[in-house]
């Protein structure tokens, strides 16, 4: 139990009104209004996710300082060696590093779901007469805000360093939108893992194990044509590769219909499979 | 009067352990029903099954006429739960918690704010409304938790150990709130390990031990089931306890129990009138030169009932 006492908190003197005022409050409680719609419940949980960001703003480090660091690091580390100059490399790298930061950030969804689930408040949510997936949708929409933030931060750093998207503002926005959509769909994998695995640490461990190869063994940092054949095989089927290709296309002003279609299908599949698995695990818990 | 809860042969196993081992309950609507038992008796597991949080492995439970497994959504429409560990979000403020709950129950934001303010006021939390719940004291957290449970007045309210860890003043506040909620017609199911709490609040009590109901009835019935009454004696000098015990045993003709308190002794009163033997016992204690500070004649306390029923007499007397 808490060690904080009521003395000195400023409201020890405020009594609990159990007389007429209390009864009035009970009566004044409107009769249960109709159940909220799926959208209203999801939005209420999104609001909760945003409040958590408001109260613990430090958690935005991974979508602000970290992406800046990644962009600067890789631009100056590989720029000269891989593309002859950092400016040229940035054209290739920026959409990729954006995808990498966002995809890496998705792992925190699983961790925060796991942390939250251990707490009593989850029991209350699960006894409410609401659309069951709304808790999870709320998390993911709150996280979409974080992804958007990471995108904007990286784009800003890029613009400062001299990056100019070939697709203009519309292309850049479309690319970021697609990336956020993919991250939303991809995050259902982590909510499922969070419900499946027993501890926060194991969620973190499994996420890292999946995310590192997915983000590095891709077309994010280097052109796959420079890789040995067997590695190209993996890079080619890596979903991150396709997403990066699609985002690059949009931002560069030369979208490839095949890549876009591929991402749309992947999103639908991810939500269909892991969304269903998540909700099944959630209901069985 | 209808039944708010009816369970038959409810079972829940975790691995090899049968946490709930065939529980039958019948909770009358509009009353406070106490579920009393030591730690690990299966109280929380039972409540979690009734609140649709856990699926029973066997048996059946009807809550307000709805099956908890097949009609879980209908049950959720009618019940609220205040869990053993605060069922509020510690990162949010008290106000935000209540507004969130109001919104999740279908209120639009302006109405939600209004309702939250009203609840904060009567629960004495207006001053703390804008502070994160992690900085609340145990009592404040509990009050907020109960407030969250009655945002829309539920037909049935589960309170899982609502006063565990609270100081006496906070405990009294929670009790007052529970009484007021029941007065409005809500059925309350309360788990507790405190006998005085069950005695104070509950209309009926089920005593649970090792996943089974070992006794059920009104507090009065439970007390009379273990004996007519008791004599409780408190001495001034613990050195005299053994002597006093012998005197009492002879005068009353019943076994005398040494309580955990080194100054106290309790005994059942003999059948057929307690006053005579008790008066004799007091006189003989005095004649033996034993100083008695308190001498009381009464019904057995629920503590004694509890210990008798859950078979832990020896552990306590030692």
UniProtKB/TrEMBL annotation, chain A:
Main location group: membrane
Keywords noted in UniProt: Antibiotic resistance, Cell membrane, Membrane, Transmembrane, Transmembrane helix, Transport
One of the Pfam families matching this protein, by short name: ABC2_membrane
Keyword rRNA processing: no
GO molecular function: ABC-type transporter activity
PROSITE patterns: ABC_TM2 (PS51012)
Membrane topology reported for the UniProt record: Multi-pass membrane protein
PANTHER family: NODULATION PROTEIN J
Record-stated family: Belongs to the ABC-2 integral membrane protein family.
Name of the molecule in the record: Transport permease protein
Automatic annotation (TrEMBL), chain B:
Annotated compartments: Cell membrane
Topology class, membrane: Peripheral membrane protein
Swiss-Prot/TrEMBL GO biological process terms: daunorubicin transport; doxorubicin transport; response to antibiotic
Coiled-coil ranges per UniProt: none
Keyword terms, alphabetized: Antibiotic resistance, ATP-binding, Cell membrane, Membrane, Nucleotide-binding, Translocase, Transport
Top EC class for this record: translocase
EC number(s) from the headed UniProt entry: 7.6.2.2
NCBIfam families named among the record's database cross-references: drrA
Family statement drawn from the similarity comment of this UniProt entry: Belongs to the ABC transporter superfamily. Drug exporter-1 (DrugE1) (TC 3.A.1.105) family.
Protein's UniProt name: ABC-type xenobiotic transporter
Organism for this UniProt entry: Streptomyces harbinensis
């Amino acid at each position: 139990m808490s060690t904080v006492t009521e003395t000195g908190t400023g409201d020890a003197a405020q009594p609990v009104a159990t007389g007429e005022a209390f009864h009035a409050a009970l009566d004044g409680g409107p009769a249960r209004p109709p159940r909220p719609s799926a959208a209203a419940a999801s939005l209420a949980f999104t609001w909760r996710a945003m409040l958590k960001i408001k109260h613990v703003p430090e958690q935005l480090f991974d979508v602000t300082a970290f992406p800046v660091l990644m962009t600067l690091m890789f631009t100056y580390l590989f720029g000269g060696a891989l593309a002859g100059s950092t400016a040229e490399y940035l054209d290739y790298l920026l959409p990729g590093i954006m995808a990498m930061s966002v995809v890496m950030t998705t792992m925190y969804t699983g961790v925060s779901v796991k942390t939250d689930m251990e707490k009593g408040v989850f029991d209350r949510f699960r006894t409410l007469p609401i659309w069951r997936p709304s808790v999870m949708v709320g998390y993911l929409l709150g996280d979409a805000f974080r992804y958007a933030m990471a995108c904007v931060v990286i784009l800003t750093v890029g613009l400062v360093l001299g990056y100019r998207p070939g697709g203009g503002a519309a292309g850049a926005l479309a690319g970021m939108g697609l990336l956020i959509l993919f991250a939303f769909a991809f995050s259902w994998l982590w909510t499922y893992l969070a419900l499946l695995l027993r501890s926060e640490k194991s969620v973190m461990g499994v996420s890292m194990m999946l995310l590192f190869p997915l983000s590095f063994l891709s077309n994010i940092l280097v052109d796959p044509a420079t890789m040995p054949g067997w590695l190209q095989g993996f890079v080619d089927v890596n979903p991150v590769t396709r997403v990066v290709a699609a985002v690059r296309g949009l931002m560069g002003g030369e979208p490839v219909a095949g890549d876009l279609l591929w991402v749309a299908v992947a999103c639908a599949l991810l939500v269909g499979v892991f969304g269903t698995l998540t909700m099944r695990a959630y209901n069985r818990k | 009067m209808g039944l708010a809860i009816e369970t038959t042969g409810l079972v829940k196993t975790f691995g090899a352990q049968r946490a709930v081992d065939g529980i039958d309950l019948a909770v009358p609507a509009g009353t406070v029903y106490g579920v009393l038992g030591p730690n690990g008796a299966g109280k929380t597991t039972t409540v979690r099954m009734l609140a649709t949080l856990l699926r029973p492995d066997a048996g059946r439970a009807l809550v307000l006429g709805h099956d908890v497994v097949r009609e879980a959504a209908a049950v959720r429409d009618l019940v609220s739960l205040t869990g053993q560990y605060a069922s509020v979000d510690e990162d949010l403020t008290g106000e935000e918690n209540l507004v969130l709950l109001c919104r999740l129950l279908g209120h639009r934001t302006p109405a939600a704010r209004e309702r939250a303010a009203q609840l904060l006021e009567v629960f004495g939390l207006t001053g703390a409304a804008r502070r994160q719940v992690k900085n609340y004291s145990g009592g404040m957290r509990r009050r907020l938790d109960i407030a969250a449970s009655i945002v829309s007045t539920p037909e049935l309210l589960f309170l899982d150990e609502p006063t565990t860890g609270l100081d006496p003043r906070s405990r009294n506040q929670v009790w007052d709130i529970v009484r007021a909620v029941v007065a409005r017609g809500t059925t309350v199911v309360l788990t507790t390990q405190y006998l005085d709490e069950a005695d104070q609040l509950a209309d009926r009590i089920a005593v649970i031990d090792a996943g089974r109901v070992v006794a059920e009835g009104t507090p009065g019935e439970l007390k009379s089931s273990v004996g007519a009454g008791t004599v409780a004696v408190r001495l001034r000098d613990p050195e005299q306890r053994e002597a006093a015990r012998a005197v009492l045993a002879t005068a009353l003709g019943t076994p005398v129990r040494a309580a955990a308190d080194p100054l106290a002794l309790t005994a059942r009163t003999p059948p057929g009138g307690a006053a005579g033997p008790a008066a004799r016992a007091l006189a003989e204690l005095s004649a033996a030169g034993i100083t008695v500070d308190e001498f009381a004649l009464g019904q057995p306390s629920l503590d004694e009932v509890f210990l008798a029923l859950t078979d832990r007499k020896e552990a306590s007397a030692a």
